[in-house]
Specification:
heterodimer; A: about 120 residues; mainly alpha; two-stranded antiparallel sheet; about 65% helix; about 5% strand; B: about 260 residues; alpha+beta; NADH Oxidase; four-stranded antiparallel sheet; two-stranded antiparallel ribbon; 6 strands; about 45% helix; globular
């Protein structure tokens, strides 16, 4: 089980919620339950919780210890997202919406990802 | 459109109608505008290669993208890859300056003759200039000017445009780019899905921080009456964000299946 507590309580999910509120107003995670449902399903598929998914995308420079978003890790995450979409059986608009919501989670946490990667 | 309105309505468009082709004559007009741009020593460093995005194999298109430019390159139906031809000065050996003498653009009144070009300007100025480390910067300034004329012409033709970076190595291979061409930017061209205002005129630094009179630190005074006149002429337009922008972006994101 990837999630040890309600998904809203993970720091990265709080950051996502905050980013969506800042960007669009209202409370998009509450108003569109499919966003959190999609992330929950992806966590179950992947076996990691949201904070772990996010942490995987970053590495630290050996010399300085400075954290940076790894291109290879990001590509690996995109691969996981593709596999998840395939496993979901969703295609077309539904499939795009599923993965776009997940990309939104990463983007609002500072990981630059785009639909062309999927 | 009036010239000032073209300047005022230009935006970097990031949402294109990916399936709507751009007429060939409009592409040619963009290139024609680049060609008639002002250029130091009449060298004309700018080179441009037009590529239809639909003709780029998917794997190569992916390799051309950078993380922050990927979506723009993916949506724009036409890419105009711009380069700086560093070898042009030595190849033409002052011939283009002499053309300006022949047509009366450069005249003895200002010290210009064929002899002056052959014996002084080319060997003593242009050759050392073309070997100076600062040469590409100066030449790139001219390429930017030419590119901007193309950009504004595209806007005047009702097109959307956005300069972006691109990955130079795969582009070089795809287009057989000569070794002495420096990669600049790609002009992404297409019909915009965004409204004409695209959210309003983008934030810019204050006028007084950018432009000076006489000495740095003494701002060029900005006359509010001139500003008001330019607002009338639509060069200065409503600043971003327009109230409708967030909804517009949200609608575009949903239509195109993009993250929010």
């Amino acid at each position: 089980m990837a999630l040890e507590r309600p998904i809203e309580q993970y720091e990265s999910v709080a950051t996502w919620a905050h980013g969506l509120r800042e960007q669009w107003g209202g409370d998009p995670l509450a108003e569109e339950p499919e966003k959190l449902a999609g992330l929950t399903a992806f966590c179950e598929f992947d076996g990691r919780n949201p904070d772990e998914l996010l942490a995987f995308c970053f590495l630290r420079r050996k010399e300085t210890g400075v954290r940076f978003a790894s291109v290879k890790r990001r590509e690996a995450m995109a691969e996981q997202l593709r596999a998840f979409r395939t496993a979901s059986g969703l295609s077309g608009t539904e499939g795009r919406r599923l993965t776009s919501n997940l990309l939104s989670f990463f983007i609002h946490n500072g990981i630059q990802m785009h639909t062309g990667m999927l | 459109m009036e010239f000032k309105e073209v300047v005022g309505i230009r935006r970097s468009i990031r949402y294109f109608d990916a399936d709507r082709p751009v007429e060939r004559e409009k592409i040619q007009k963009i290139l024609e505008a680049m060609r008639v741009a002002s250029c130091a020593v009449n060298a004309h460093w700018l080179r441009a290669v037009v590529v239809q995005r639909s003709e780029i194999p998917e794997a190569i298109l992916d390799s051309l993208k950078t993380p922050v430019t990927a979506l723009v390159q993916e949506l724009a139906p036409v890419h105009i890859y711009c380069y700086l031809d560093t070898g042009i000065v030595k190849r033409v050996e002052g011939k283009r300056l002499k053309e300006l003498v022949d047509v009366g653009a450069l005249n003895p009144s200002h010290g210009w003759t064929h002899k002056f070009v052959d014996e002084f300007v080319y060997p003593q100025i242009l050759v050392p200039f073309s070997e100076d480390p600062a040469y590409p910067v100066a030449a790139a300034f001219d390429c930017g000017g030419a590119g901007t004329q193309g950009l504004l012409t595209a806007v005047d033709e009702g097109l959307g445009v956005c300069w972006t970076a691109f990955n130079a190595d795969p582009a070089k291979e795809m287009m057989d780019i000569p070794d002495d061409w420096l990669p600049l930017y790609v002009m992404n061209v297409g019909y915009p899905l965004e409204s004409r205002e695209a959210g309003g005129q983008r934030p810019r630094p204050p006028f007084e921080e950018l432009y000076f009179e006489g000495k740095v630190g003494r701002p060029f005074p900005r006359d509010p009456e001139v500003v008001a006149g330019l607002e009338q002429e639509k060069m200065i337009t409503t600043p971003a964000p327009l109230p409708s922008r967030k909804q517009e972006v949200r609608d575009l994101s949903r239509t195109l299946g993009l993250p929010e």
